[in-house]
Write a structure and sequence with these properties.
Blueprint: H1 11-22, E1 28-29, E2 34-38, E3 44-48, E4 52-54, E5 59-63, H2 71-84, E6 90-93, H3 95-105, H4 111-114, H5 117-120
């Protein structure tokens, strides 16, 4: 499947899919959900579905280009995933990482992100897949 065949939840996910397609990186979109909370009877009450699965890397990737004040919630989900499913590798692609890719590869930024491109991209660029330890403790 290619990025053109997927109904992505967000434009940044579509653009990452296009970039992965261009570099012939195998990927799947939201192929699996993980329980991260359960009720007293053992039924899952909260799930986490990472955006991408990179089978050749054995890694899930979660893309977050939302207001960075709200990223704490997503960081919490990834930390819970790592604690409850330690065999699962998941990395977060933050807004700064996404914006770096937009600039580096000449992608079109969604309208709300275009305004922050000049200010967000100062300093040293980050990697496509930041270290798993990059999620704050």
């Amino acid at each position: 499947m290619t990025a053109d065949e997927v109904d992505f939840a967000h434009e940044s996910e579509r653009q990452l899919g296009l970039l992965l397609d261009f570099y012939e990186v195998a990927w799947e979109y939201e192929p699996r959900s993980f329980a991260i909370e359960w009720d007293a009877d053992g039924h899952p009450t909260r799930m986490f579905t990472p955006d991408f699965w990179l089978p050749d890397e054995g890694t899930f990737v979660e893309v977050t280009t939302m207001d960075q004040k709200l990223v704490t919630k997503k960081n919490g989900k990834v930390k819970a995933l790592r604690r409850l499913h330690p065999h699962v590798r998941c990395r977060i692609l933050y807004q700064r990482d996404y914006l770096h890719l937009v600039l580096k590869y000449g992608l079109e930024a969604p309208e709300r992100l275009a305004d922050v491109l000049p200010t967000r991209m100062s300093g040293r660029p980050t990697l496509l897949l930041p270290d798993e330890d990059a999620v704050p403790a």
